[in-house]
Design brief:
It is a single chain. The chain is globular and about 50 Å long. It is 35% helix and 29% strand. The relative contact order is 0.14. It has two domains: 143 residues, Fructose-1,6-Bisphosphatase, Chain A, domain 1, CATH 3.30.540.10; 103 residues, D-Maltodextrin-Binding Protein, domain 2 (3-Layer(aba) Sandwich). By secondary structure, the protein is α+β, with helices and mostly antiparallel strands. The protein binds L-MYO-inositol-1-phosphate.
Length: 265
């Protein structure tokens, strides 16, 4: 079995177990553990518990790999492989009891920096929605037995998704981007989960997605899904505090970039 498929199978197994734990804790009642960059940027006790489970399972299976998790930070390795993990992406949805949350696990080769890493495998498990999206580099992207493919034709306009940062001071700039993007859109969705938005672009359920300020763990697995589904994922203004991510099929990506590239942070 290739390394990519081996890493994918490990990611899927751990994402399944972690997703079931997140779902169980949700049903038992969610408890706020802390706030981070702002009062709106929350972490629950389940976020921390799920990441501890993921980190333990991956370390037991591949002790020489590195790790970068949203809640427990970075740990270096010697294998050249780093696991990039968001234990519960869509944390606010999770805290409010909305189903659009997921466990996002990716294995990358090289430093855990989106501009330089080579994503090898990924899994996005949405336990409350009963779906797990998977990809291994060179082996396509899948949900169950269905191979994923981005859309190519948007005669009525593109169905787009976006997100907003936790800092209210960034909302006006994000709304300016929405206003520009709407000139090519049939409608807009805001799920509250970057990994799920990326999975839906890969699955052809969205024509495109853009958002500023995502962290490596928000996008690592989902970007590989889009790539393996024939899409394009780019990041812009990477030197700024809030890089812009654009993910779509090639034509929609080009149109979105032309519209959004004129807006600087
Ligand atoms: C979230 C992303 C979402 C974004 C939020 C936040 P978290 O990640 O999935 O797209 O709009 O600001 O970054 O915090 O739930 O892991």
């Amino acid at each position: 079995m290739s390394l990519e498929l081996e890493l994918r199978d490990l990611a899927v197994g751990v994402a399944r177990e972690a997703g079931e734990l997140a779902l169980r804790r949700r049903r038992e009642g969610v408890h706020l553990a802390a706030t981070k960059s702002s009062i709106a940027d929350i972490v629950t006790e389940a976020d921390r518990e799920v990441e501890e489970l993921i980190r333990g399972r991956l370390t037991a299976a591949r002790p020489d790999d590195g790790f970068l998790g949203e809640e427990s930070g970075a740990g270096s390795g010697t294998s050249g492989i780093t696991w990039v993990v968001d234990p519960i992406d869509g944390t606010v949805n999770y805290a409010y009891g909305m189903p659009a949350y997921n466990v996002s696990i990716a294995a990358v080769r090289g430093a855990p920096v989106p501009e330089s890493w080579e994503a090898l495998a990924g899994a996005v498990h949405a336990p409350a929605l009963g779906e797990i999206f998977t990809a291994a580099r060179g082996h396509g992207a899948w949900v169950g037995e269905t191979r994923l493919s981005v859309t190519s034709d948007t005669p009525a306009g593109a169905l787009l998704a976006t997100g907003f940062g936790y800092d209210p001071a960034t909302h006006e700039g994000d709304l300016a981007a929405v206003r520009r993007a709407m000139s090519m859109a049939r409608d807009l969705r805001r799920s509250g989960s970057a990994a799920l938005d990326l999975a839906y672009v890969a699955a052809g359920r969205l024509d495109g997605y853009f958002e500023r300020g995502l962290q490596p763990w928000d996008l690592a697995a989902g970007a590989l899904l889009v790539h393996e589904a024939g899409g394009v994922v780019t990041r812009h203004d990477v030197g700024s505090a809030r890089p812009l991510l654009i993910a779509a099929g090639p034509d929609v990506h080009a149109s979105l970039l032309a519209l959004l590239d004129q807006i600087r942070e």
